[in-house]
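Exercise 7.
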Amino acid sequence: MEKIIDLKNLKKEDLKEAGYKAAYLGELVKMGYNVPKGFVITRDFFNEYLKQTDLDVQINAQIDKINFADLNSLRKTSEVIYDLIQRTDIPPTLEKNIKKHYNDLEEKYLAVRSSATDEYENVASWARELPSYLLVHHNDLIEYIKKCWAAIYHPQCLSFRCNRILKDCDIVNAVLIQEMINPKLTGSIFSIHPVTCDRNQMAIEALHGLAETDPDEQIHPDTYIIDRKTKKIIDVNVSPQEFMLKKSGGKMKHVELRLKQKFTQKLTSAQQNRLIAIVEKAEQAFEKPIVIEWAMEGKEISILQVNPFSFCEHKVK
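Solution. The predicted structure, written as tokens, is:
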């Protein structure tokens, strides 16, 4: 398999190399959904980077010294490995390959997302918490790729190595790079109730503007609970929103919303129905409960991320 792969050439069977986010998005591209253009830097690329720079030996030596019962030991090792990755240049031939794929994109500001490749998604729920970065300028792309690589050595991730199932698992982080879009609405849709795990219900979250923000912004989405059979809304929780975040050049811009937008429901019935149809079809393809992160730019709905929703693995009603 190629070490860097365009999204349009991926399929769900490629998850071991490309990770769940990238492989599942590739499958949705093949199904005809709108997905921002991009490519994935696979686990093979990362492993080649480690091999050519001898980082594999240095990182393994650090991991062998961990006392998994000591949080300080985990933290110290995590910091050392993070610094090693950040200070170690990507060899020129590998970096040239990244730039070649970037040059095929039209947008100079990018979204850089982690795409965990380990096969234990039902156990390693931490994979959903690996970082994503928005509005990354192409000149800073290498820096943020390495941030995603280093995240797999976060103390929480390292601690899973003391779990019997994951102890010898080759946990690697593929990196998904996509063109940034500037949506008027964003959110998530769950093919299963995300709290009660009721298979007869789905849930949609929606807010104005970009979805990924600083936690201090405290922007809460509207929530819609849907009856799977009738497609009718069972419950709606409208969250007032004072402003939205928009892409403006290379920065996030705060835009105050009009009074009507601040306090009214964000999605129309037609928009809700389109999202329901998307998640139902996608769930059939992946044969398991999923969560989709979506964005609406004009009338077009784009899929930004799709992941298995493993929280309900043992709680499905």
